[in-house]
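for the record, two folds in this file. i put them one after another cuz i was lazy. first one right below, seq on top, structure tokens after. the second one comes after a little note so u can tell where it starts
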Amino acid sequence: MAKKEYSFYPGCSSQKGASSSNYLKSANAMCDALEIKLNHIPDWNCCAASIGYAGGGKLPRISLSARNIALSEQAHPNQDIVATCAACWLATKEASERIDHDPQIKQEVVQVLDAANLKIKNNKPVRHMVEVLIEDFGYQALGKKVVKPLEGIKIAGYVGCQTNRPFGIAGESFENPLYLDKLVETMGAEPIKNYDKKVQCCGGALAFSEPEKSQAMIKDIITSAYDSDADMIVTPCPVCQMNVEVYQDQINKKYGTKFNMPVVYYSTLMSVAYGKSAKEAALDGQIIKAKQLEAIANK
């Protein structure tokens, strides 16, 4: 029997063939080791993170996330809502906050949901998976599950902006959040504690509309990791992971750099440290191979 159960919102990018399907795979492996059961919200929909600010209006955007909250309450009434995707977490948490603090929004959302025969209580917290790890388990308990310490790997913790602002992780500094550093250390690797780009935006919103600006921002993120002697970058955000990994070839051509920096999820690190295989940890989903993690996983 699972020690802890959560109502899980996987999000669009985690689906088969999508950009962060490897994130969900490694998260499942991590949760298996920690005896966490993720109960998927039935019939969930997109949180509108990609299109919700493009002229669709505030009410449709918030209503989409409110529908997921209502479905979660219907299917898993006693469980906290948990997301792995930073954008999904941010959108759902924002919807919950606005419903709580804006009577007009609440009234309008209730009307929208009523048309779909749904009701919302909004009485359970919306949490990112890293909050669950830190608050419900703690670093000491997470460390006890390590069977293959990630020794000899230097890792830059790239938090990005979506899990940092406006809400952030409880108890963490907005300017210098340390939870990724602590998770890295807990898994036996060496965190780059002076990494100065950990909260810089990767330019995710500009990747298609203004790629030159986005890639300039990514270049700074990777350059800082190299300057700090990092072997790889770890992140909690699918957009950050994708942007910082997949555009390295284009950046190399434009700037004459020789970037080849693996960018992985915290769940990937943890899955390997917990003794999961390279396939279970979804290392085969990396575009830039994390060879040091593969070597440890294959021991």
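(here's the note) second protein begins now
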Amino acid sequence: MPRRMTVGTLPAPEVKTRLQGDGLGLRIGSLGMRILSRMPAIHQGLPAAYADYPVLELDEFADFRVRIDAPPGPRRWIRPQAQFYLGTTAPFLPLPAHHALAMLEWGMNWCVSSGMHRYLVVHAAAAEKDGLTYLFPGESGSGKSTLVASLMLSGWRLLTDELVLLDAQDGSVQPFPRPVGLKNDAIAIIQRAHDHAVVGHQVRDTTKGLVAHLRPDADSIRRGEERGTAAGIFFPRFRRGATADFTPRAPHETFLALVNQSFNYQILGESGFRLASSLVTRVPAYDLQYGTMDDGKALIRQLHAQIARQ
């Protein structure tokens, strides 16, 4: 089978032509996304963030066809805005035009979290080391994305930074390696710690503050169809100046946390219950507290070594 083209191998005029025409198709893990846009922010920002991603041709299936463009009316010219569409549906209010790339990322998350019911979709990150996959559930602000970004830049495989897809049949983790969303101080923390990090344009004044996206490493993208097997569940909590420590979490507490962080547990019904129950009884879970990124990574390495010996 011939090797696929990647976004980075397409000339800039070709990227623009596809975005403005029938769409630029991306293979992200095992999912296909076809993206259309006439907005300069997308024409410039998407190739940088997705340079290493395989390109879908027009005759290939895409799970979602999305568009981000200016909404109709005078706001096309007066304080321009960006609107996200799935087909003809606009599920969100428009945002300022310079938020277009961030809005595209949030919109793609919404598509998967609300439409991929062959998986239990959990708000969590996931990374793999030595064939062992670890899940990092957490609410916004817990530090999970920053921690997983640093692990990826230290040689771990990134499976996802935002949405863990657990196969409803066998519980395997389907990778969905997307650009990692970094917010506020986390952007500078990653850039200082990893001089090879490729961080995109910073978007100011969003509902989450200052936002930028970190390009995943090429190996994580290339292995996007290699499923993982969960070996542990870590609940990170960054608190500046806190002493690094971890404590085991009881299975019933982990179960409730996963259910609360899931987007479609109730839709899956019994299969979701069986999947979550099996996961929390099969793998250990821990609460992690740390005050620096190095402390957090040291805890992860310690737990990984402990789990790998079992």
